[in-house]
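Lab notebook, bench 4. We co-purified these components, and the gel suggests they stay together. Before we commit to crystallization screens, I want a quick structural picture of the whole thing.
Request: model the full complex, all chains together.
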Amino acid sequence: MVEILVLAEHRGGQLRDITFEMLTKAINLSSKLGAEVISIVLGKDVKSFAPTLAEYSNRVLLVENPLFEHFNSDLYQEVLSRVIRELKPLLTLIGHTSYGIELAPRLAASLNIPLATDCIDITFENNSLIVTRQMYGGKVNVRAVVRRSESYMVTVRQGSFMVQKPSPPLGGRIEELSIPMERVVLRKRFIKYVPPPPGGVDITAADIIVSIGRGIKDKSNIPLVEDLAKSLGGVLACTRPIVDKGWLPSDRQVGISGKTVKPKLYLALGISGSFQHILGMRGSELVISVNKDPKAPIFGYSDYGVVEDLFKIIPVLKMKIDEVRARKE
Amino acid sequence: MDIIVCVKHVPETAEAEIRIDASGRDIEKQGLVFDINEWDEYAIEEAVRIKEKFGGTITVITVGPEDADSTLRKCLARGADRAIRVTDPKISGSDAYAIAKILYNVIKGMRFDLILTGVQASDDESALVGPVLAEMLGIPHATMIKRIEFRDGKAIVNRELEGGFEEVLEVDLPALFTIQTGINEPRYVSIMAIRRAMQKEIKVLSLMDLGLSEEDVSETGSWIRVKEMFTPPAEKKVEFISGSPNEVASRIVEILRRRGLI
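Here is the predicted assembly.
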């Protein structure tokens, strides 16, 4: 039997979206390969996840242990390397998330299984595994061939596959695995979670967002865009590099490590559009982008685009908006 | 504290327009400015800050052609003590896994307390060299690190999770950490400091020096091989607005008015 193993990811008692995105892709591949989809979930108390996972899997493996209360890649590696050695799945899927980035490369190296990370598509062609992934901040896609192997591992980018609930549900068999962990010596120990700092501006509640990226060049240019946001009656948001530089606080960050926003207008100024940022704004109703690079990925997610130096556009745009507003009043 | 920092010399593409080259498997590198990988710049800065606090040495390692010396010089100017560059025409075609093997062979005989490197490189974005290297060396690791402290001979680190959350971990030393951008504010490196760093020696090693052969690296020793490169498909069909800034602004205002946004 050919098997596709999917590591279910969860945090705070919830299965995360990436789990269902991977399962959807696994089901899709399995119908072509005649494979079985097996989901595996580790945790302190994960039985409640089993019925949902069973809808998307032919088999569900539950591995419960008080040690798994919090994610620890060392423990996950111990369990998964045993399971993969025994099961020899053709393909193991893990999310390219903060957990997957910590776990997958080391797990693959220890098992001597080739790994392709951060993939947005997966196909088997003539017995070869071909993956699609991005390079250079999302500016190009590559199709890459994975070294021939009996078993492969792929980490999947979040938001790459639209979840489709199988109909009828697969009704997978639920099995509890008992894996002795007494002899595992932990060299890395979880202490606590740190939530994002409270307070600040809630950009997720705004109808209009003016968002800036590296193109803003310098901290001294921020008042310029703040004024534009004010004229529009919106709030100012930004990409990760702006927060990294300390130009705006982290509550303004849109993207995978910041906030997800769905405003009526997202005005992207000097943002190239890495996927980490795109995942935080692709639900916006209207996206207008200004960028000097005509090939900036952000344009692929925009309704309107302007290929121009943002400093030439902002002052005129603000003036015209103020004019319209003044006429209305 | 003896620290090893692994860095990569990469083309700056965040704000550059890039083109796919004639081979269809890579981008046109001519005309692009090369510099230290952004994540690695935070890693070397963090190493220097730790050294300033606790003393010790910093060794910086890269794999790349002679041009990569400029990245090593910047690290030396910032405060690194030694620099090693591995170079060999046979390395061509190597993926991140093969690079990790090379770094392992450089580091395995060395004494260290800490290895730092960036979460990922801005070119291939694999995010795997760090954890694979830690596995080969048999030391603990943690990725996407936003803060490092030391207590009772152990490291206390903050890892970045999604949505602004972090987790705090205690990790035994020696350990490897991959550094996330924003962990610190990299200092400005003066021309004088770079000039002084010109005096420091960069040790150059070949595959043979490391006991490696072409089969260990290149496409043969890699996990993945790029077959073709192409422009990503657009999710939305964008309408480009052209004209003078005045015309562009008028058009945007019209779009916003039509939608009742102003």
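The two ends of chain A are 72 Å apart (CA to CA). Worth comparing against the SEC data before the next meeting. The mean pLDDT of chain A is 96.
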